[in-house]
Write a structure and sequence with these properties.
By secondary structure, the chain is an all-alpha fold.
């Protein structure tokens, strides 16, 4: 075999290994995106609070209705987007449907929090989510800034985890955030600007909620 053929064979092997590595990274990124869909994260947060910090809720209906409003109703966008008329729209149709269902679920949870006499911690959660979707809709629909709803919705549970379970969870939450951020960039679902805007939306919403709760 000539030197040129040896060199070309080496290039082919190198390119093949690079493609295989890229395929593995793509699969990892897709897995991260699937496991970090907003309803899953908020569902895990509420379940953890119910088990390890039950004082956040009062009775049985508060955690159930909160879970229904913040997790189940927004999650309906995924099966409903499989309806033939909506499936044609692809991810854009799914995203629009999620933006329509999410406020409905958040309002249901917040209204029930008020009716059932929810405590300050439950109000902090509900108002944080309610304000986040309001700000998100303003940025996307009014100002057309394309803030990432995914980044907004995953930032909230990570911050709440630190608030309710302590700063010991901060490194884990930071790592999860970085992994989810990377997966969105890897799959080209969002730009860094979109993700940062979504993150800031969640932070601002939580700040507004904290101020209101502290006043009342």
């Amino acid at each position: 075999m000539t030197e040129k053929r040896i060199y070309m064979a080496g290039l082919n092997i190198g390119e093949g290994a690079k493609e295989a590595r890229g395929a593995r990274l793509d699969k990892l990124a897709k897995a991260v995106r699937v496991l970090s869909v907003p309803p899953v994260l908020v569902g895990l947060l509420l379940t953890a609070l119910w088990i390890f910090s039950p004082s956040v809720f009062s009775g049985v209906w508060q955690p159930l209705v909160t879970l229904f409003g913040l997790a189940v109703v927004p999650a309906l966008a995924y099966p409903l987007s499989m309806i033939p008329a909506l499936r044609k729209g692809g991810r854009d149709a799914q995203r629009d449907l999620a933006l329509k269902l999410t406020p409905i679920g958040y309002v249901i949870s917040t209204v029930f929090c008020w009716i059932s006499g929810g405590g300050s911690n439950l109000w902090l959660i509900n108002l944080g989510y309610l304000f986040s979707i309001i700000v998100l809709l303003l940025l996307n629909k009014v100002f057309h800034l394309k803030a990432s709803g995914h980044a907004c919705a995953i930032t909230g549970p990570l911050i709440y985890a630190v608030i309710f379970f302590g700063w010991g969870f901060a490194p884990v939450c930071a790592l999860l955030y970085a992994l989810i951020f990377w997966s969105s960039l890897r799959l080209e679902r969002h730009t860094p600007r979109d993700l940062l805007l979504g993150t800031l939306t969640a932070c601002c919403a939580l700040g507004i909620a904290a101020i209101i709760v502290s006043l009342f």
